[in-house]
Amino acid sequence: MLVRMVWLSWVLSCGLVGTGAEEDESYDHHKYYKSLVRQSEDFWVDLTHLNKTEVGLVRENAALADSYRQAATVKLSFQFPFYGHYMRNLTIATGGFLFTGDEVHSWLAATHYIAPLMANFDLRKEGAKIIYADNGTAFIVEWNNVYLNDVSNSSISGPFSFQTIIHHNGDIIFAYKTIALNISLIEDKFHPVKVGLSDAYTIDKSAFYARRIT
Hints:
By secondary structure, the chain is mainly beta. The protein has one domain. The chain contains one helix and 18 strands. The strands form four sheets. Strands 1, 4, 5, 6, 11, 12, 13, 14 and 15 form a nine-stranded mixed β-sheet that branches. Strand 7 and strand 8 form a beta hairpin. The chain is globular. It comes from Lepeophtheirus salmonis (Salmon louse). It is found in: Membrane.
């Protein structure tokens, strides 16, 4: 599994810095996957243009429109490998991540996620939306012009625009077009702030007349 993180725009000391012409990349190898960080425009998918050339391919889910802390499950047209098992269903969350678990619950951000930028995003802001497309070999999800719900550490709440692209061979791309402020300044009091992947072994059991997943 290869994870690519691609920056089209990035932040330095809370100020937005434009993209440069030169590419800058580094590799990081792990036991189960390897990651590549690159400054480039190569991997960003223009879903607005794609929707004009492939009518009906780009979609919005009504459950996610104008919403806060919501999630919607989407069935892919293909399977892709994720930590040794094959996934067909993914749950898109307004909080900047995909949930990969089998059962939707109240703490999706804890485990089983693919997170280009997990944070307390609110889609009730004007112009904020989540769009996605499935072309048979890749699944693209874009959080477009989303804003943070809480901005206690900064007066800047957005916008943020970023994508995750899931390929049928297991490659995962995180692409960032607009990052309004340094990620270290994003408040995590009411919602986790994470970038990366997570898988977990869970046990569904009943104890003392209460159902628990651990």
